[in-house]
Fold this sequence. Notes:
Largest interface: A-B, 47 and 35 residues
CATH superfamily of the largest domain in chain B: TolB, C-terminal domain
Structural class of chain A: mainly alpha
Strand content of chain A: under 5%
Shape of chain B: elongated
Oligomer: heterodimer
Strand content of chain B: 25-35%
CATH topology of the largest domain in chain B: Neuraminidase
Helix content of chain B: 10-25%
Mean pLDDT of chain A: 92
Order of helices and strands of chain A: HHHHHHHHHHHHHHH
Low-confidence stretches of chain B: 1-23
Largest sheet of chain A: none
Radius of gyration of chain B: 33 Å
CATH class of the largest domain in chain B: Mainly Beta
Number of strands of chain A: 0
Low-confidence stretches of chain A: none
Amino acid sequence: MGENTEKIYFLRAKAKIATNDYEGALIDCDKAVDINPANHENYYYRGGVKVELADYKSAIVDFDKCISMKGDFAEAYNDRGSAKRESDDLDGAVADYRKAIELKPDFAQAYNNLGSSLKRKGDLTGAITSYTKATELKSDYYIAYNNLGSVYFDKEDYAKAIENFTKAVQLNGNYYFAYNNRGAARMKNKDFSGAVADFTQAVTINTDYSYAYLNRGIAKEMNSDFKGACEDWHLALDKGLATAQTFIDNQCTKK
Amino acid sequence: MKIFGHFILAITFLFLASSLNAQQNVEFTKSNFPNLKAELKGALNNIKEGDKLYNQGPYFYAQALPYYLKANNFNPNNAVLNYKIGNCLLRSPQKAKAIEHLEKAQKLKPDIGAGIYFSLAQAYQNNLMWDKAIDLYKTYKATIPSKYPDEIFITDKRITECENGKKFVANPVRILIENVGSGINTIYPEYSPVISADESVMYFTSRRDNTTGGGISNIDEKYYEDVYRGLRDPKEIWGNVSNLTSVNTDFNDATVNLSPDGQKLLLYKDGKRGGDIYQSVLVGSEWSKPEPLSNSVNTMYYETHASYSFDGRMLYFVSNKPDGSYGGKDIYYCYVDEKGNLGQPINIGPDINTQFDEEGVFAHPDGKTLYFASQGHNSMGGFDFFKSVLKDGKWGKPENLGYPINSADDDVFFVVTADSRRAYFSSFKQDGFGEKDIYRLTFLGDEKRFLLNTEDNLLSSLDVTVKQKLIDQKLDIPTGELTILKGTVYDKITKKPLLGTIEIVDLEQNSIVSTFTSNSATGKYLVSLPSGRNYSVTTSADNYLFMSENFNIPKASGYQEIEKNFPLDRIDVGRKIVLKNIFFDFDKYTLRDISSTELERLVKLMNQYPKLKIEISGHTDNVGSEAYNKTLSENRAKVVVDYMIKNGIDKSRMVFKGYAFLQPIASNDSDGGRQLNRRTEFKVLAK
């Protein structure tokens, strides 16, 4: 066994990750670490696989090891931040994302992730700054635009929310999350027909997308189309969204 | 204080003298219509006929209106006529049209009189044009001589109503209003709906052409009121309407309320001594002939509305009798004894009653919420619906149900379903089936939140995105805190429905909460049990052994419906029943206090049937040795027999036995099964 064997395991792990076989990938990552415990990348990838397997505590140990071996590895800080975020250590996550950005100032992904953690901490202004930076660094970053729109939605600045959701769908015409979100913002902005068109577009792209059915029902209810609302909530329920049952129980005639 | 006669004063301000204003106001004179003599004469005749009715007061405005409108077709530019039409419309279902005529009257003749300010302000108020209404009320108030303090008072009240209205309209209540449909509503008026606690039956008033006797009221030329019943099908569609012939007469018969068990229907009928409340009882499948309630309720004044409390032990009612009144119609209550006799009336007090009218009282089956209509409190105009909640024996501050449940107009009769999620009321709406229709209102609660989706590229090492976690949305709609218990009482063997007596006992208080009967034809019953109590429910019938159940309903319980049938055993040798409300201390044979009601019932049964001989037996689960359990079960049976002897039952009529766990009625493998096996039984040995 030697460098070539380590590389084979390493590549096979990556191949398994590509097919979402994280259990298999973890076995190969372990092998790679066993063969060459001095390679910081082996810990880095294994940590990522563990995050996907929701073993955050163990993932953080791997990222710690990686960083101890290579202290200027921005990506490792970013990924450790994500492991911390997923284990609800938001302060730890924010510190790691900031360190990643310090090491790599054009790290758009870290800015996006920092924005999400700040949003969860309730720092909407910080989140906006961070997401905006992400979109400046990566102009086709539609996920960051969608996230930025959602913060403006929370701040009840629906015009700016619509602007950012629109940018997201312009960058990715199949991004049904952004259509759904823009529909909600349009409804808040009193644009009922625009809202219904967006929710409808979202379920046209993904016919199983329960949120958009539920939201279209809410829009219809707000527009006094109670029958239409009930029809949509029944569709949302059919797609597995339990929340819809509460709505139906309260105000829909039995089918 | 009660305010009367406002309009008499308003009319005195009106300068009825006609003067030709050539540019605007056109008087009904020959000189203005030189070539239309016959038409002018017809118009003047219509005005004369209209005036005859109009001058009798607001009740006759509806009849005056068609005459005035005919005259107005001939000459639409007469200020006084437009003013009168406006006033008539203010008291009609077409209130919105009043503005057009009143504004025109003012424009045609600006000096028509101060009354126009009040009428027009009223029209604006009815149409929720608050600021305009306030301005005009203030203008009107400035014209009132100081010797009319009542008029100043009522105008100030109107201004306050408008200010209330502004606040309510700015913060509307989210509701859904639906016409209950053509299964109930027709081109004729339908109103005053009352609903059974399980929302399966509706009784309502209508003035249809098939009214009993076919008579027409000479007051408004509509068919007399009759009471009808509608049913709701499993798809929640109302229909299957029938005339309640046994309660209807050739004159007005109107619904007032239904008792929570659905067995007593309260009605309103005009009488020789004012209006009175009547009661009809469901006997089998027929409603009995309505009988007036006793003089505790009915007086020489008007008693217009009433409602039984959840347990039937209290009757709330509305009367305009002056004794002990806070002004106008007030809400009173009286206690109802076990035989249905009504006690002395008591005014419900100034927390609910005001110097203005209260109406439409409705006691919710949750036992703690009172709905009523009032012209006082913080009404936004006319009657508004309010609710008050009983806390620590005192009615809380009435809460206006808000806009758009309430309007600037009269909103009087309103019943809320047992689960508190819906209400039924009547209203005239342009898109209805004609005249007043019955509507269902659903409380929507707070605005629902949209669900947004976001995601992140969390890891730089892997090309995967992670969706943001979603917390499931909860819909926070308050519901009634009560349990509706319903089912059928029948013979266990023949399945024949029985007229049973259902007794509800609060076990902690050791007191009878209420007593109801099942329907003799169907055996069906329905009772409301407010949350926060531990109840025993016992059903008995003549020549049958009683059957009891225990229901512990925690305080925090929301609304629920429980179906519980009571198959009763005839009193025959060999028959036995479980005494479910006899409780012992754990692992002991000491009777707990809450057992006394069940034991007293047993004593009563033995006294009722003096030849009855019984065996009382104790049973345990299989935890512990047979010897230990036999002693325990025998001792438990013995203390029951001892109690009976102590209460006058001859010991020769009873034997006691302990069977330990040798006669299980359920599996001993589960907690639930073992609980069923731990029991006290009673068996008929001779009768």
